[in-house]
Design a protein that fits this description.
Blueprint: E1 3-8, H1 11-24, E2 31-35, H2 42-52, E3 67-72, E4 75-81, H3 96-100, E5 105-109, E6 123-130, E7 133-140, H4 143-153
Parallel strand pairs: 2-5, 2-6, 4-5
Antiparallel strand pairs: 1-7, 3-4, 6-7
Helix pairs in contact: 1-2, 1-4
The structure holds adenosine-5'-diphosphate and magnesium ion (MG).
Amino acid sequence: KTEYSLYLPDEQAMMALGARLAASRPEGGRVVHLTGDLGAGKTTLTRGWLRALGHSGAVKSPTYTLVESYRLAGRDVHHFDLYRLADPEELDYLGLDDYFDGQALCLVEWPERGEGVLKTPDLAIRLTVAGEGREARIEALSEAGRVWLEALER
Ligand code: ADP
Ligand code: MG
């Protein structure tokens, strides 16, 4: 199975999903794309994830800087928000290889803004507003992603 959907009734549930993704991550699982409209909950999920890894401070939306980096549990974590990106080629100036080609965990909001430049992620998570809450559809796009999804569903 390569897809998993769940309903998240509130902000706490969204943060808990972030924590579950952190806990179930296999060794090779490194890149996660987060798509969904403004207000869908991408940053909330990221906040839950970073908290689970031990981050206690605020989580800034890197809307203007494009990326905010953390060092958590002995590993680099990069949180991207590409909303302001006008052209995927602007990413060339950021030096993406330094972020994506190592052991770092990369969480990317608005990955569609970097289409053609960003590589296929391990997981693609699509968030949509559903009633008072949110629907999350998680798709595995690599072997590590499939292992990840299996662990997540357990
Ligand atoms: P995005 O980063 O996608 O623009 P945010 O994470 O900033 O969205 O969230 C926008 C708002 O949605 C926040 O007020 C947050 O509390 C709320 N929110 C997040 N997840 C849920 C949920 N599962 N149900 C209801 N509200 C949520
Ligand atoms: Mg956001």
